[in-house]
C-alpha cells in the first residue's frame, strides 16, 4: 500500500486567530514496501500528518487530499466512516509512544485483540508463533500491568503486526526504551517487513511510516545494510517538517517532498541540521 499527499494542509479546530496551521501544503508520495521517516522537532506537524494518514481522525485535511493504492485504492475523502474503520482494522497497524496495552489482559490476549476484531479463526496459533519468534513465550500469560516498559512495547509491536497489515504507522516507538529494547523493537519491524512474521510467508509489500526523534535509528531503518534488504525491499525516504512546512533539499524543482537518502550525503547528522529552525524563523518548542 502506498500513499500520496496532494498539497495537504491542516488547521486544528482549537486554533486561534494568528496561530499557524499544523500542516501547510505538504505534497509527498510514500512508496509501498519501503520505510519512510517523518522527522522534525516537536510541534512541526509530524503526529498530525501520521494521524491523517492512519485515519485516526475521521475528518479530512483542511486543504488538499490524500490518496492511496492497494486494496482497490481511492481517495480518503470518498471513504465512509465504516469503510475507513474497516481499512484501519484490516490493513493498518499502529505502534505509539505508549504501548496502550489493556492492563488486566495477559500479554497474549493483548496481542490477539486485532484477531478478535477481525474474527480470525487461528488466533491462538498466530499468537504463539509470534511470541516464539520474538522470544517472548515466557510472557504469554503475564498480565500487561506486570510487564516492563520494553516488554510492553514489544508486545505492542506484535499486536500491531499480528494480522499482517499492509502498512505500519509508528509514532515515537523508541522514546521510552533503553538501547537493548530499542534494538529488539527494530528487529521486529524488520522481521515483519520481510514477511518473517506472517503465517503465510507471502511477499506482499509491507510499508512502514515512522515518526521519531531518534535520527540515527531512523536513518538505519530507511537505509538498512545490504544483507537486511529482503526481496520486497524498496528505497524509502525522509519527509522533513519545520513548523508544518516540508523542507526541501537542493535546487531541483520537484513536487515530491519525500527526500531520497542519496540526497542527504551527511546521513543522520545532516538530518539534524535540516530539521532545525532557520535563523529567521522562531524555533518551535521541543527537541530534534
Number of domains: 1
Number of helices: 9
What fold name stands as the CATH topology? Rossmann fold
Quick one: CATH superfamily?
P-loop containing nucleotide triphosphate hydrolases
- Major sheet characteristics: 6 strands, mixed
Number of E-state strands: 10
Rg on CA atoms, Å: 19 Å
CATH class: Alpha Beta
Q: N-to-C terminal Cα separation, in Å? A: 29 Å
What is the annotated CATH architecture?
A: 3-Layer(aba) Sandwich
Give helix % range: 25-40%
Mean pLDDT level:
89
- Please give the order of strands in the largest beta sheet: 6-7-8-3-9-10
Note the beta-strand portion: 15-25%
Strand pairing plus helix content: what structural class? Answer: alpha/beta
Cα shape: globular
Low-confidence stretches: 282-288
Q: Could you spell the SSE succession in H and E letters?
A: EEEHEEHEHHHHEHEHEEH
